Amino acid sequence: NKAIKKRKATLLQEYVLRNKSSTFMDKRIGEFDAAMNPDEKMAARLAQERKISQKKNVFSLNEDEELTHLGKSINDMETHDDPRSDDEDLYDKVGRDFIEKTNFGGFLTKADPNSDAAKSRRDAIEQLIAESKKLKYERQVEKDENFELTEKLDKDWRQFQSLLAASKNKKTAVVDNEASTDDYDVLVKQLKFAPLAGQASERVKTEDEIAKAEKKRLEKLEQERKARAQGTEAKKDVHKRQLASADDLDDSFYKHERITGTSKQSDSDEDEFEEDEQADRLTGVDSKDENDASTGSDSEGENDDASEEDSYADLESEKEASSDNEEQEDDNMTNANKVSVPAKNENRLSEKHIKSKEIGAGKSTVADIPETEEEFSRLVESKGACEKAALIEHMIKSNQSSSKKLERLFVYLLQHISDTADTDIHVVDKLCPHIYSLVQLSPTVCGHFLLDVISEKEEQLQNILSRKSRFSVSYPSFSTLVFLKLIGQCYSASDSSHMVATPAMLFASHLLTCCGLKDPVDFLRGIFVANVFLEYVSYSRRFSPELVAFLSRLLSHSALKLKDERNVAAVTESDLKLPLKALGCSQVEMTDDLKLKIVNAGVKLVERCACLYQTLPSYKELCDPLIVVCQKLAELAYPETLKAVIKNTLAKLSHKIERKPLKPSKKPPPMKPLLEPKFSMKYDGRKHFSGGEKKVELKKLNYQYKKEMKGAMREVRRDNQFLAQHILKEQMARDAERKDKVKRIYKELASQEGEYKALKRKKEKLSNRM
């Protein structure tokens, strides 16, 4: 049978050799590969041999590779170094004859009795030691002299080099004029500057390309602002695991905190700490632009400043909305109107006294920063607002190379604004641009200072509220509230979470929620806080229930009712603006004119809130309390200008938003499968596969799989039967062989027993005869 023969040649051989370890296995590459020709086999074998020969033991330091230099083996090259030590030339200098006679006694030669060799061995050794010490001392003296001469030469060369450099600077112009005209020198210079001539420079962009690049940059910044406002900004390497290296000293204790979410800062100072420099790279110089964009996003209620530099004129008046309405001081918080910065930060900033220095012949001065806050206060005490601004600008320009000095100046400015904001509002307006520039130079450290100020004011408010009830606390002074405005101007308040702006926003919302409206100055300061808070949320359009509740409480307050409605004269829109100077006053008289200004400012803030929140789904429910308040105001006898503002606000509050009820999405009915007709093109009476082409193919594959599986199982069974038969034959052969051996042994034992008994009988017969 052909199958039996094949199994004997393959399966039986594997079974027979299963436990053999002395068989010869041909493992040559490609020996049993019919697809490889002899050349390919030889090439593959040669590559394997080279790979094995080039492979080195990773734990062995011995190098088998022969090192060469300039095509020659290093081992064959002649060495010019003398490998002998300094003491080996001693024998050459002492004398070879003396050494030979001393060491070996002349071997077989007989020493001359009159020569030095006739001396005793002790004298010879002492002479040898003396000669060697003498030579070593001479070499040491020579070495010391060479060292001293070298040091003297180096010192003289340094002095000579300095004189040469000084004379060279004086004669530079003369040497340039007497340039060599040698052809060789000209060629060397041409070759020297040849690579520069071959380098390509950047093409000058056209106006359209510049405009497109600027537009692309602004769009990118706008996308980043939106991402930060929504809290979806991609944070790089924030959650990435920091793996420590083997030589890490574990001294990375500094935490890099992020102040703003914009791109890079322009430059970092040399004296700044490493953590501040990295945080500055994360901050942006365009946070001011972002604030401008946030204030300009509302079309009817905010200033629109498209320029990169803010004039800070919005501290005095708002162009379209009443931003000039604000605040009164809490009696208990007035005593704490000084900005206190932690002692650790103030001690770290070593100050220098302001002085003027003449630089060169240009008579330009450099303004240093005072060492203490008292010196700074005495310096600016007698100056006006414009003079102070000029002096601060000069200080910033003179100390741009030292960030620590600018940080100290920032602390002084915060304290000075806290001291003078209530009495001189123009100082705040003049110093705000310089505070903004200092924040951009060092946003991290300045942010910590402002955060300390806000934290201290919040703690003071909490202490007062713990002793008094709600709405019985007056608003803090303008020297405290001005920091809310400064933070909104210097940092991005539209971010979802910001280290400086978020605490300031929480502090402002706490003021709107807890402070009451008792005195006229409370109305002014409350409107100021509401206006600043609205600027915080104007870009991100974040809903603030504190702001809506405050406006509703403000406009419905009984203190705003006019005493004599008949004497109300016609006023213009400019007459309804609040006086900003009244924010710093402690006592303000509540007149009908001031009431009209407060109502006008409150209504305009309501109008801005309506424009800001009109896209919210719950707009109608949010505006219902404000609509009720504005309707009551419209019925009062106010001037026509104010009535027009109220009607316009009511129209915006009554804006209807079409809302559709939520319904489950209707899914289209599933399509029924298109079935192919069951018919056969050729009818032969046999059963064929029916259905689609895919089903037919699947059925064929399943049938073929089952057929192959049955065949494989059948072959496996036959292989097992073949092996079982072979094993049975082997077992029967071993049994037969064992039976033969047993029979042979029994036969031998029987013959041996017969011989033994015969011998025994013979012995018995012999014994009987005896």
UniProtKB/TrEMBL annotation:
Where is this chain's protein located in or outside the cell? Nucleus, Nucleolus
Query: Mind listing the UniProt keywords for this protein, alphabetically?
Result: Coiled coil, Nucleus, Ribosome biogenesis, rRNA processing
| Ranges annotated as biased composition (Basic and acidic residues) | 217-227, 345-354
> For this chain's UniProt record, which GO biological process terms are given?
maturation of SSU-rRNA
Segments for region (Disordered): 217-354, 657-676
Q: Where is this chain compositionally biased, Acidic residues type?
A: 268-278, 299-315, 323-332
Q: Which domain of life is it from?
A: Eukaryota
Q: What is its main location?
A: nucleus
Q: Which residues form a coiled coil?
A: 742-769
GO CC: one term?
Noc4p-Nop14p complex
PANTHER family named in the record: NOP14 (PTHR23183), NUCLEOLAR PROTEIN 14 (PTHR23183:SF0)
Q: Which family does it belong to?
A: Belongs to the NOP14 family.
Record function comment: Involved in nucleolar processing of pre-18S ribosomal RNA. Has a role in the nuclear export of 40S pre-ribosomal subunit to the cytoplasm.
- Name of the protein in question: Putative nucleolar protein
Upper classification of the source organism reads: Eukaryota, Metazoa, Ecdysozoa, Arthropoda, Chelicerata
